[in-house]
Amino acid sequence: MRPKTILLVDDDRDLVAGVKAYLEARGYQVITAHSGAEAWERLAERLPDLVVLDIMMDYDTDGFTVAFKLHETPETAHIPVIIMSGFTKQLDTKTHVFEPMMYRDWPAARFLEKPVKLADLAAAVGELLAEGEQPVAKGA
Question: Measured between alpha carbons, how far is 78 from 80 in angstroms, rounded to an integer?
């Protein structure tokens, strides 16, 4: 059985290196990207089993743009997304930036506030990947 693949997207290269090592030590294959554009390059190469995504990268809503596009594209809509960000700390000062996002369907299965506890991230990854392996009941 092949290891589950995770696309990890964050512009903080140190965070990416640490999270990648942590998840790989738990048996996952981790592909990385450092921007929304780079995330789409990786997605074109191979669809992962799960995406872990920062919100604010090249511009304030770069990660949201990726998450919504993943959610709305038929080929990628089934891929669970974990958003990890400290953006909630900036909602008061950047309401004008985030307000258009507030009235759309939330594009992620989980949200983790930065700084992320690696054990919490690993637990969320494990839960979401296990959910994806559950057989669908007939008639559902």
Answer: 6
The string of pLDDT tens digits covering residues 71-80 is 999 999 999 9
With b for 16 or more beta-carbon neighbours within 10 A and e for fewer, the 8-35 pattern comes to bbbbeeebbeebbeebeeeebebbbbbb
d(CA 83, CA 109): 8
- Is residue 82 within 8 A of residue 110, CB to CB? The reply is yes
Q: Can you tell me the mean pLDDT for 80-104?
A: 63
Pair of tokens at residue 112: 């983790």
Report the candidate in 118, 140, 123 with the shortest Cα–Cα distance to residue 21.
118
**Full set of structural domains in the chain with CATH:** 5-132 (3.40.50.2300)
